[in-house]
Design a protein that fits this description.
This protein is of the alpha/beta class. It folds into 2 domains: about 325 residues, ABC transporter transmembrane region fold (Up-down Bundle); about 240 residues, P-loop containing nucleotide triphosphate hydrolases (Rossmann fold). A hairpin with an 8-residue loop joins strand 1 and strand 2. The strands form 2 sheets. A 6-stranded mixed beta sheet has the order 6-7-8-3-9-10, sandwiched between helices. A 4-stranded antiparallel beta sheet has the order 2-1-4-5, with helices on one face. The two termini are about 60 Å apart. It is a multi-pass membrane protein. InterPro entries: AAA+_ATPase, ABC1_TM_dom, ABC1_TM_sf, ABC_transporter-like_ATP-bd, ABC_transporter-like_CS, P-loop_NTPase, Type_1_exporter. One of its GO terms (molecular function) is ATP hydrolysis activity. Keywords: ATP-binding, Membrane, Nucleotide-binding, Transmembrane, Transmembrane helix, Transport.
């Protein structure tokens, strides 16, 4: 177990919230003052009983107000003051705690998301999107709910015990122990329930994470679900996950719901003991009637709020389970660290050397073995090969989405590991076969990554990518919403927007990862024309399965089984009569 994991989640959370200490203290002070004024009315009732019974001999009379009417007016004035201050501090603590909960929730979500973005791709491959969404949304909301209500409850119950307990021992030490008798049992019961509830709520959080993961997966794959008429099958799968979540919650509720009834029975013992034995003390003249009234009311005020401990305990355990999951995400180690060398864009020439590189995903067999490639600055090179030969993996290594296991990759003679992420990735424009468009307008998607670009610059980039004409035919032109993942556009249209995005970025290095593999011949021709223009005077790496798209490259590298097996121009490779020739003949329909 790591040092972080051995520390209680709320201790770590409290350390995390050091910048909010002043707001926490203000909110705590308002909660305490509100509870003190909330506990004052029983004292006023006792004083009123004292005035009615003793009249000129009452406590207030001893302070100088002899007239009974005057004494009642003093009590009325004090009542206005007490109720007014109680209301003011209630407004203050609610506003402070709620705003504090919102602020901590906001900052924690941002920190968790910021950390998530810094994690390597392998982390995401092992986890579902819905599960991560559950942490960033539901778990952090659960923590916010506890800070909103539960923290105040704990403070006010503690204040009640201290104030009322102190008052009891001051006014009637002989009866006080009876009211306090249930306390150890309530505290012991609370701790026992907490220990038994903790694993049940941890299971609840895991179950809701699995449910969210399945829902997210299904919403992303709704087209596949419909095309295979798998709606009933998916409803059954969601039903199974939702049922598991419901049953997990039922197990937690079965235990948490038993808390209040059991505590109420224990409280009843303390209340009836005070009522009976305190009454006897008052009848025997050992206690003033006003004091007895105060004790009865205060006993109810002392013990009854403890029944709400069940709800507070419930929220606390849910918050603890959620906090553990959020902190576990924040503790996830960052495997790929940026370098500190700057690389000004204007100085990038684009010469890339891949030297004896080996790479494997996790503990699998190497995808790339002892690979060495030379990519001259300003030239177009192609990397071809059958599926699974390691072509696209090279792209991920060049962008440092993964770390090489051995060997090194240099850009203009500098190792990629030494360069700042922002500078390295700013120098590379990627157009992949799997184009991701964000929910937003066409213009926003082209501008993505070049956020300061003007509309004329966007139009110019779209024109170069041969996208302008089809954009102008869309309902709102550049302001047309493309839908989530660009679902309102065809594959070729999405591809051309991706090229426009890369053109706008003006990168010295352009990577085309199967950029024309999923489009028709007419669209491919249009894309090829635009690519011929944008590859001029910049280093271009074309990853291709379709050989016709790379036949004019300055050099073609052929990969097989993660290794370089052939290299040369299109003509040279055809003359060799090797793997490239076989691939070419198959694609051209030759035997």
């Amino acid at each position: 177990m790591s040092q972080h994991q051995s520390v209680h989640p709320f201790k770590r959370l409290f350390a995390y919230t050091h910048q909010y200490r002043s707001q926490i203290w203000q909110a705590t002070a308002c909660s305490i003052l509100n509870k003190i004024f909330d506990l004052a009315p029983p004292a006023l009732i006792g004083a009123a009983v004292d005035v009615v019974v003793k009249q000129q001999d009452s406590l207030i009379a001893k302070l100088g107000v002899r007239d009974v009417f005057g004494q009642l007016l003093v009590l009325a004035f004090l009542s206005f003051m007490v109720w007014g201050l109680e209301s003011i501090f209630e407004y203050a603590y609610k506003r402070l705690w709620r705003n504090l909960a919102q602020t901590i929730q906001h900052d924690l979500r941002l920190d968790a998301y910021r950390h998530l973005q810094e994690l390597e791709l392998a982390y995401f491959e092992d986890r579902s999107t819905g599960g991560l969404m559950s942490i960033l949304s539901d778990d952090i909301n659960q923590l916010e709910r506890f800070l909103d209500r539960g923290a105040n409850e704990v403070i006010q119950v503690t204040t009640t015990i201290l104030v009322v307990g102190g008052t009891f021992f001051f006014l009637a030490p002989s009866v006080a122990w009876m009211a306090m008798l249930p306390m150890p049992f309530i505290l012991w019961g609370s701790i026992a329930f907490q220990r038994r509830l903790a694993p049940r709520y941890a299971d609840v959080r895991e179950k809701v994470s699995l449910l969210n993961g399945q829902l997210s997966n299904n919403l992303s794959g709704i087209t596949t679900i419909k095309s295979f008429t798998a709606e009933k099958y998916e409803v059954r799968r969601i039903e199974a996950e939702s049922n598991a979540y419901r049953k997990s919650n039922q197990r937690a509720i079965a235990l948490s719901a038993a808390f209040v009834p059991l505590i109420r029975i224990i409280i009843l013992i303390g209340f009836t003991a005070t009522l009976v034995f305190g009454g006897l003390e008052a009848v025997n003249g050992n206690m003033a009637v006003g004091t007895y009234s105060v004790l009865v009311f205060l006993c109810q005020r002392l013990l009854w709020p403890l029944t709400r401990l069940g709800e507070t305990l419930d929220e606390y355990q849910r918050a603890i389970a959620s906090t553990r999951r959020v902190l576990r995400l924040l503790d996830a180690p960052i495997a790929i660290h940026p370098g500190d060398k700057p690389l000004p864009l204007v100085l990038v020439k684009g010469k890339i050397n891949i030297e004896d590189v080996t790479f494997a995903y996790h503990d699998r067999q190497p995808v790339i073995s002892n690979l060495s490639l030379h990519i001259p600055a300003g030239k177009t090179i192609a990397i071809v090969g059958s599926t699974g030969s390691g072509k696209s993996t090279i792209v991920k290594l060049l962008l440092r989405l993964y770390e090489v296991r051995s060997g090194k990759i240099t850009l203009d003679g500098v190792e990629l590991q030494d360069l700042r992420f922002q500078d390295l990735r700013r120098a590379i424009g990627l157009v992949s076969q799997d184009v991701f468009l964000f929910h937003g307008t066409v213009a926003e998607n082209i501008r993505y990554g070049s956020f300061d670009a003007t509309l004329p610059q966007i139009v110019s980039a779209a024109t170069v990518a041969e996208a302008h004409d089809f954009i102008m035919q869309l309902p709102q032109g550049y302001d047309t919403i493309v839908g989530e993942r660009g679902q309102k556009l065809s594959g070729g249209q999405r591809q051309r927007l991706a090229i426009a995005r890369a053109v706008l970025k003006k990168p010295p290095i352009l990577i085309l990862d199967e950029a024309t593999s999923a489009v028709d011949n007419e669209t491919e021709a249009a894309i090829q024309r635009s690519l011929e223009r944008i590859t001029q005077n910049r280093t271009t790496i074309a990853i291709a399965h379709r050989l016709s798209t790379v036949r004019n490259a300055d050099r073609i590298y052929v990969m097989e089984g993660g290794k370089l097996v052939e290299s040369g121009t299109h003509e040279e490779l055809l003359d060799e009569g090797g793997i490239y020739t076989s691939l070419w003949r198959v694609q051209m329909g030759l035997r």
